[in-house]
Design a protein that fits this description.
Length: 688
Amino acid sequence: MKTGNKFTFTCMALLLSSLMMANNITVSNISLADENTTDKYVMVQFDLNWENSWHTTSDPNNWDAAWVFVKYRVGTGDWQHALLNDDDHDAGTGTGATIEAGLRTPGTAFNLTTNPALGVFIYRSASGMGNFSITGTQLRWNYGANGVAEDDILDVKVFAIEMVYVPGGSFYVGSGADPNESRSFTQANNTSGATVPFQITSTPPTLQGNNAASSSGNLSSRGGMDITGTNTASLATGFPTGYSAFYCMKYEISQQQYVDFLNTLTRTQQNNRTETSLAAGTTSVSNRYVMSNSSTLQHRNGIRCDASIHTSDPISFYCDLNGNGTGGESNDGQWIACNFLSWMDGAAYSDWAGLRPMTELEFEKACRGTAAPVANEYAWGNTNATAATSIANPGAGNETSNTSGANAVFNIDNSLNGPMRVGVFAKSSTTRVQAGASYYGIMELSGNLWEQPVTVGNATGRAFKGLHGDGTVSLEGYANETTWPGLSNGEVTSDNGSGLRGGNWYWDLTMMRVSDRFYGPYNMDNDKQDLGFRAARSKIFSIGEKYGGGIICYIDATGLHGLIADTENLSAMAAWGCSGTYIPTGTAIGTGQANTTAIVNGCSTAGIAARICDDLVLNGYSDWFLPSLDELNQIYINRAAVGGFALTLYWSSSQHISTRAWCTQFNGGTNPSGLVNESKRFRAVRAF
């Protein structure tokens, strides 16, 4: 970590910290700019880079992103989570980027203090792939909402975690294996033979005991549930089933990520998030490898502290895989997946980062996506797995395996004896199978370290409501979010309600199968050398949200799809089309795109509204169209959230007769028709 020079602007002064996070993402050149003392905000400025970024508008229709958040402290006080604005951010220059605010409670209105943005997602705006690099990025920090004064001396850190967007939609759990994966999901009345994959849809599943008299429309498993006979159970309202869109960490928490987390905690909090006893009053540490409580390196976890520490001040931790006492060297294992993480450790990290635990239903969605299940498959979609049995460049940022064809870390207790670097098999030219990647490009969901998702196998897990962390942990260093599994007296102090999925470096390949739930309903906290963690964040769409190149103006009943409007009127005015030519068009929601195509093909006149929309390339998107009448009426209903409309007539793409087309009057909402050769205002939209 590098510390910049203290400087002053207006009355505020600060110390700046530059951090490197995850596998290959860097934040650098942090500064503060453009302080507004009236509205009490300042822009946190930095550069952001990572490798192998992508955004695809074809299957699987997703992208990778950086979850970026800010921590600060006043003087030598405790580290706090910075409360960000929902907009007024600036992506800077370089790769065309979108900034998407992550509110405390997504889908509800922004509020400076009660529902601020806890971080932002930054991702490639246009379809494409390659290295991502932006400079001069600015996030608006509402420092007044944090109670910070203009003359406070600040220390500021910016963190970035690589995430992957998992689109909403139906998918299957259970693979249809025979013999089945242990305790895998199946239809509730399927008691023998091959399991029957169960489709998760917009309606949360009812869970039922696996009994011949149970309903095939309910979800069950071959064991691993506390529901017997034909008894049923429901998931809590808000339980993330995987149907709704979410972001998932691209990698398991790395050792440097966990070090950075520890180094923002108080001494008491640090003591509860490590295994070595580091309570206040301790000044000499013999078991310096603090995650394994050992004096020597155990299972490739190199997180340690100095032998002599202050009696009460927070401890500085660092990665030292090579054991020479100097942290942060190029081969010190910063990028190795962090093992020895209990459920309580992972939950605390998630809370601190403004994220949440994922569920075991989301785990299968993240692995399989919308593809048809393959019996006994691994996260990369087939049943072929080759174990890494050797390491090249151990502990370095380019750590890899010399084993030909290796695509997973499993069954290697007699060779590597621990996890490997996150993303170890992924290269710019590797296929999904070669990289060991999931349907959506998420790494090591099979192998390396156990995932610890929320289980549906017991009542405690099913009570999870999907709430996000608020950026802070309890005074004792525990997650403290309502309904999170293991919560007792306001703190997550047990692993009840969690489970294990995806296998690890020690166990054989059977545990790596996507649908295997051998430990799905419970955790093995006593064997933490093979436990890791990755967090998630829900993506809930809301009217007025900046998204997909514009502003969301309509959301359908699923909550996953709708319309995005351009933020400005296109051109001053334009005609609708060719007078006397009737072009069959629809008025319903969902017909605007087809209408636009039909108009463009049926009328060769240049400069008409539909053609301008069809030719539009804006904010990285080229699929804009002129909305149908019903689509335009939805925009009118939500016009205040979109903004910029004149009190006049706007064209729809719905034709009335050969000489007239339907309009919406934005001064009252009526729907008159207008002559197609008249010039009127119009607004482009795109679907999501």
